Fold this protein.
Amino acid sequence: MQSSNDEPIEKRIVNYKEYIDFFRNDANMQGIWLFVATLGCWGGVTHSVIRLAAMIILLFIFFYLINSNNKEKRPFQKIESEIESLITSQLEGDEKKARLYDLGQLSRYRKSVKNILKHSPILLACYTFYMISFIYFLHGILGGLKLG
């Protein structure tokens, strides 16, 4: 039989997992827009300095959009610390061990490279394309400068 303190903590852990999944899904969707906007910088802007400025602004917009869709503004680590604090202060014995184990599993899930690759491939591909484009644009600007 579970104590009455355990159920709200279990619910918080479940909500936290749902938030991680929501964040990854939303990041994938924003990655698509990053890709499309990066393509726009390739074709719509011809002057290299303006193109570089557009790429920098695009990155700021990307991070703004990811943060604006999140209802939870705290970092993952802070959420985990809060749940851990609740577990240690409100539970005892096997219930405490079980919830700490659940939270540890969720923390490993969040940090796992395998899970990031599995659940965020669109974001990773689009962000990689952005970074390659940014480096290419930067190289074009720096290559055009003649020093001395």
The CA atoms of residues 53 and 84 lie 43 Å apart.
